[in-house]
Amino acid sequence: MIAVVVKNVVLEAHSVVRIVLGREDNERLPTFEAGAHIEIHLSSGLVRQYSLCRLQADDRYYEIAVLKDPESRGGSRQVHALKIGDRLSISEPRNHFPLVSLKRKSLLIAGGIGVTPLLPMAQTLAQSGADFEFHYCSKSPDHAAFSSALEVGSFADKMHFHYSQVSSSGRMDVRETLSENLVDVELYVCGPANFITAVLEEAKTLGWPEIRLHREFFSAPAQETTATENTEFTVKIFSTGEAFLVGEDQTISQVLDENGVFLPVSCEEGVCGTCMTQVVDGIPDHRDVFLTDKEHQEGKLVMACCSRSKTKTLTLDL
Ligand code: FES
């Protein structure tokens, strides 16, 4: 864990604040690669993950941009209440959403606050002279964090702004953009869950290979599955042989916690990857959006905060 202080708070766009974090003594922070995030431990005990983004590279500071979410379970509201001088603990940067190739063209598609991991990606791609397009969808320039800087920045010629509430701009034609980039392009998409899902579905329909599709969810898409469709099963700990019943209305991570088995969790909705656990035996019933379709099919990993079991027993490598 790293102890940091809030160095600055800037209203970046409508309902979006940019928080600048640094060590009290202004010593350098660990480096990070485009797409990385940090965990922020808020004073209430909540732990939230935010992508690292900054317009100017200064290794003394991390910056995050956070949308005040009306559906917030408290995280974004507490971040919006932070003031200069507040003290926080953060994790070292981790990256589940890296750039996979600088040789192939990259297609970056951001929906609203989904711009945050894609901004450093665009900076990295521009610095290395790689081919890319950056599509930024938002309601209006006032809602689009970093838009004024991106309009005049060093890769302004790569930017495509799609403002749904600006008649001269309008919504992005996702199908057309994906069709034009079908061959040998890496797609990176981030934004609201339904936005990501719609872009990925369109890409799959057009025949984009799964291996070229990269996404980072900030929240889980609305699930059609209801608690009444859950069935109970047993979760077994491989190292000790202990077995616990997971009731219809419980999660694996809750049951493990109640029985003193430590498993780190953060988002608790299958988005962040913190609770990822290896499966030794049994077939998981995946409910997360973190793993890829291929990983879901392989069934070797499970997100214990939300996923369940198709078999009567699920043995985990714990
Ligand atoms: Fe985030 Fe499980 S805690 S995916």
From TrEMBL:
Q: Does the keyword NADP apply?
A: no
List, alphabetically, the Pfam families matched.
Fer2, NAD_binding_1
Q: InterPro entries recorded for this chain?
A: 2Fe-2S_ferredoxin-like_sf (IPR036010), 2Fe-2S_ferredoxin-type (IPR001041), 2Fe2S_fd_BS (IPR006058), Beta-grasp_dom_sf (IPR012675), FAD-bd_FR_type (IPR017927), FNR_nucleotide-bd (IPR039261), MRET (IPR050415), OxRdtase_FAD/NAD-bd (IPR001433)
Q: Which PANTHER family match?
A: CARNITINE MONOOXYGENASE REDUCTASE SUBUNIT, NADH OXIDOREDUCTASE HCR
Tell me, what is an example of a GO biological process annotation in this record?
Answer: methylation
Query: Could you cite one Gene Ontology molecular function of this protein?
Result: oxidoreductase activity
Provide the 2Fe-2S ferredoxin-type domain boundaries: 231-318
Keywords assigned by UniProt, alphabetized: 2Fe-2S, Flavoprotein, Iron, Iron-sulfur, Metal-binding, Methyltransferase, Oxidoreductase, Transferase
The record's listing under SUPFAM superfamilies reads:
2Fe-2S ferredoxin-like, Ferredoxin reductase-like, C-terminal NADP-linked domain, Riboflavin synthase domain-like
Task: Report the CDD domains cross-referenced here.
Answer: fer2, PDR_like
Q: Which domain of life is it from?
A: Bacteria
All copies of the FAD-binding FR-type domain together span 1-100
Q: What is this protein called?
A: Vanillate O-demethylase ferredoxin subunit
